[in-house]
Fold:
Amino acid sequence: MPVQPKIVSPQGPAALSVARKAVRRVLAVVNLPLLLALVALVAYGLLVVNSATVGSERFSFNRQLLGVGIGVVAGAVLWRVDYHRLAVLVVPLLVLDFLLILSPLLPVIGVTVNGARSWIELFGQRFQPGETAKIVTIVVMAALVARYRGRLDSGKEYLKCLGILLALLLAVMLQPDMGTGLVFFAIGVTVLFAGGASWKWLLVTFVAVAGAVALVIWLDPFLDEAFGSDVLLKDYQMNRLLVFLDEDLDPTGVGYNLSQAKIAIGSGGMFGKGLHQATQSTLGFLPEAPTDFIFCVLAEELGFMGCVLLLGLYAALVGIGLWVAVKADDPFGTLIVMGCVGMWVFQVLENIGMTCGLMPITGIPLPFVSYGSSFMLTNFMAVGLLMSIWAHRAARKAR
Structure:
């Protein structure tokens, strides 16, 4: 029987070409590596948080899922917004920044949690506006420094930018929230460095800040005794600094948190005890397990290899972020990305470092992993800004 020749529809190649063009258009506005890294980190974090919140009356895994959902929506909105429009809104954004930071101090809606008045409560729901203020601060600092086009070598201009950063930092310390204040400082220094600030001025800034911290620590006992109450540092903040300087100081008292954190990390071994098998968190030995000490839960349940996987995902996120910064079509976009990357890097180093005794214990959570809707919203907003910079760079290149 003769073989019939295969008839190819003339529409086939054309349809395939249209499909390929559509895929290229999508990839032009969606940074696929960033999206994949985000999905992997969030999924990994939810896996650990689910284990850490089982049987807890204080923490709800469903609320964490809600935070992820809200974060996805907020990130998508920022992704669609042309970030260039934000560069001319420095003054309104700066006002919004101060309003967000100072709103917890209002007598009606402000709420004190763990010694810091950094939360507001509306309609029965708590929210930490200082988290959203981190994103606003990144945009404000990036817009200010971008005006110098990578040559911020004038001492006068440097002091202007630094003065705004210090004003925001002091507003945060009124709560007082040392952890958030440190993140603000890390964001500002990263943007200033990436924006071309002279290393001499940055060195002077670090020396001055270190001197101010040392002076505060030295004066604090005298002022507390003179006024009969905490003036500069709360008792728990001073205790955290003392434990950092001497890990063996009162392991059953002020050093309890660090001691239990190390036990949890060390007991995980190479491959961990398995999900839902952690004893330090489930038996109540590890304080704030789903939030500040979530890394300890991960280390105990998934072991050293689980920690390596987490660090690998963070390295991918930072590397992709730096790639987006290089590809940005203007200094403003580059500095926004550097601010977000600086925020992530500092929070990862501080959170993991404090659980190992390498950094002072602060209330800084782990990006995309720690429990907290406000914190999750902030991280998704940062990703939304990176996606916006990538997408609008591609759109401008196409035009």
User: Anything to note?
Assistant: The chain has one domain: 35-197+234-398. The beta strands are 110-113, 116-122, 125-127. Residues 35-197+234-398 form one domain.
